[in-house]
Amino acid sequence: GNSVTQMEGPVTLSEEAFLTINCTYTATGYPSLFWYVQYPGEGLQLLLKATKADDKGSNKGFEATYRKETTSFHLEKGSVQVSDSAVYFCALSDQDYGQNFVFGPGTRLSVLP
Amino acid sequence: NAGVTQTPKFQVLKTGQSMTLQCAQDMNHEYMSWYRQDPGMGLRLIHYSVGAGITDQGEVPNGYNVSRSTTEDFPLRLLSAAPSQTSVYFCASTITPRGEQYFGPGTRLTVT
Asked: How many Å apart are CA A83 and CA A81, to the nearest integer?
């Protein structure tokens, strides 16, 4: 079945540091890939997405590139802020709805001033 | 648009009680899901629906029932609450099977 693996953290960085959160996936077809962010006490929000190989999703300074050859979708940001402290989930959707929308376990990021 | 709304925001139940978590969306999305979020386990799919009148089980359906009588509403029923159902519950919807999901704010449930 489909699966998503991501570094579980927690990740602690100083403000303005470079961020990478690794995400790799296993899928039977050609999935769409997503990064969601969850701020404390809130639901998940879509951060960025990519629907085919070599697509780059970007939003709020975050980027991720769909790499089919390495089955990866790593999240990066050049300079993190305290306000980026949250839990980040990598996810994929493949074929039909329901069980084929799979989330990774989440990575907690803490950014210190 | 209000997006996806969930009520209540917090709930405490005693073991054996039943209750319904409400979920509604005003985006005319056909596809809706219920997830539970537990520490260290990410999100796990409970039940989902691909349209009014059509529901199916997810990864962890035991102890939960759903129905989908309208496109807008997708309530989740706990039949006889157990402490193992203490969790945060999220409802989500999407317009296409492979599209991004829109999440509600969650219901934090404690079963004592």
From this structure: 5
Give the count of beta carbons closer than 10 Å to the beta carbon of residue A77.
20
3-state secondary structure of B84: helix
The predicted structure's pLDDT at residue A97: 61
How far does A107 lie from chain B, in Å, by closest CA?
9
Q: How far is CA A57 from CA A48, A54, A61, A63, A75, in A?
A: 5, 10, 10, 6, 9
Strands B76-78 vs A86-93: parallel, antiparallel or unpaired: unpaired
- The reply to whether B50 touches chain A by the CB within 8 Å rule is yes
Which residue, among B55, B41, B29, B48, has the nearest Cα to A89 in the 3D structure? B41
In the predicted structure, residue B10 carries a pLDDT above the cut 70: yes
B67: CB partners within 8 A, 6+ apart: B55, B75, B77
